[in-house]
Amino acid sequence: MTSDPSESIRDTVRRGYAEIARSGSGCCAGPSSCCGSSSPDRLAQAIGYTADELKTLPDGANMGLSCGNPTAIAELKPGQVVLDLGSGGGFDAFIAGPKVGPMGRVIGVDMTPDMVSKARQGIPVYHKHTGLHNVEFRLGEIEHLPLADASVDVVISNCVLNLSPDKPQVWREIGRVLKPGGRVAISDLALLKPLPMEIRDMVESLIGCIAGAVLVDETRAMAEASGLIEIQLTPKPGYVDAMVDWNDPLYRRVVEHLPEGAKAGDYVTSLNITAAKPTLTLTAHIKELIAIGASVTAHCQPCLTYHVDKARQIGIDEQEVREAIAVGHQVEKGSMSAMTAFTKSVLDSSTQDKPVCCTGRTSPDGKSCCS
């Protein structure tokens, strides 16, 4: 066991979920707790998965580890590349595959070798049910994703981000791998108010996503800091209440440690998180430099005076202004060279070879466009 607290948390989570993968259900083999729902299909249907979606899944893909339905809020389209963070046994990846179709791709990433192995074992069954070869699973940490920059259209995740000891880094990675205009659709647990310390210290809560949960406002702040926009956070308190009503062992244990009269739903909620990565946009800085170059090319002296002055007002470096002017001169020189060559070709060509000027065309004032 490493002395690094972050690695200690990862080791704890990895061991817990490895046991889930080997046991084939959401319940840990240990003596004290369950890491997920003891009724996976019941939970899945309660949070919006359809019977048609569930019947095509490979056996064991649904281990009752969900706290929402990210594929339902992702608005997936054919041809998209989808990344599933903490893909586990492949539950949401296999649900997403038919939605993106044969031209799309779903990539699941999980740090637990047993989970990745379990998910990969389900691929042949998925292909048999759907006829698709568009799902893959990679071993890796969600804090250090094994994907290239700007390579993903949609990032989904289901009750996983809370398990990370470095959530800001996860959000930065989400921003990195998303294409401009790409979207986020995540279901996770969040806190409505801080948990009592004894609950945060429960290892069972950590594996069950609760002890690692952060406040709703913290989630928004991390998403914003990663450069995402259009952030919408929608609490779904019914999930936690349902788990308690079903006498789920983990939630029953949590409730036992709450202050008298309190219930789990007072502290914890399922949270739907949607957001987008901005499309490529020009900053005011870049716009002014472009305007300076265009002013030079257009021989517009008032324009150049205005835009150089505006550039200095917003703090653009003098050297950058000079470089923009130089680029404008280069464009101007190139266009003049091209016009000189064209003029020569016009003068050298025979009059008979020239097309009739603007045949049948007149300007709005009734004059020929050649006059």
Would you summarize the structure shown here?
By secondary structure, the chain is of the alpha/beta class. The protein has helices at residues 5-23, 40-46, 51-55, 70-73, 91-100, 113-121, 123-130, 167-177, 197-200, 203-207, 216-225, 238-245, 249-256, 284-297, 301-313, 318-348, and strands at 81-85, 105-110, 135-139, 152-158, 178-191, 229-236, 268-276. Helix 1 runs parallel beside helix 6 and helix 14 (284-297) packs antiparallel against helix 15.
Detail the topology: elements first, then pairings:
Blueprint: H1 5-23, H2 40-46, H3 51-55, H4 70-73, E1 81-85, H5 91-100, E2 105-110, H6 113-121, H7 123-130, E3 135-139, E4 152-158, H8 167-177, E5 178-191, H9 197-200, H10 203-207, H11 216-225, E6 229-236, H12 238-245, H13 249-256, E7 268-276, H14 284-297, H15 301-313, H16 318-348
Parallel strand pairs: 1-2, 1-4, 2-3, 4-5
Antiparallel strand pairs: 5-7, 6-7
Helix pairs in contact: 1-6, 14-15, 14-16
Specify the number of helices. Answer: 16
Class by alpha and beta content: alpha/beta
Biggest sheet overview:
7 strands, mixed
> Order of strands side by side in the largest beta sheet?
3-2-1-4-5-7-6
Q: Helix and strand string, N-terminal first? A: HHHHEHEHHEEHEHHHEHHEHHH
